[in-house]
Amino acid sequence: MRLVVISDIHGSSKYTKKAIEVFNREQGDYLLILGDILYHGPRNPLPEEYDPKEVAKILNEYRYKIIAVRGNCDSEVDQMLLDFPCMGDYSVVLYDNKRFFLTHGHIYNENNMPNISTEDIMLHGHTHVLGINKKDGISIINPGSISYPKENNPHSYGVVDGDVFYIKTLEGTIIQEIVLN
């Protein structure tokens, strides 16, 4: 089973289409979305091809393949357009004897760790900055932003393939990787 992980779409139909292209190219079984799906947020400029209704339409076609959590820019009105649940502050995915704790990053992050064990992996977005870190034995992975990267990072996403988590550019070039415990 392959998991494709994206974060911080912020209503960009252009990058939602690219995310679906990536999902299909990677032959993903599930698409994990780490929040900030439809709205750009008042602190951010409008992303390329800002069209939240189109984003909802595209993602709803994959509703049975999506596991999503709420970002700080997501609200109840967004859930009204989406045919998959996205209002939980976190979700847990069991994969090949590993537990992934999915969250956006505005509540749980390196500075406010959830109560998870050292064998677990925390996936979060929010900062728009990709990275793989460890804290107290817990792997902390941010796939970066699919549509609005910051700090000179490329548009990026993550893939879980067996025991390895890859962060890749939209073209599929590996940026970082970690072997999961």
TrEMBL record:
Residues 1-161 form the Calcineurin-like phosphoesterase domain. One of its GO terms (molecular function) is metal ion binding. Gene3D superfamilies: 3.60.21.10. Its EC number is 3.1.4.-. Its cofactor is a divalent metal cation. It is an enzyme of class 3 (hydrolase). This is Phosphoesterase.
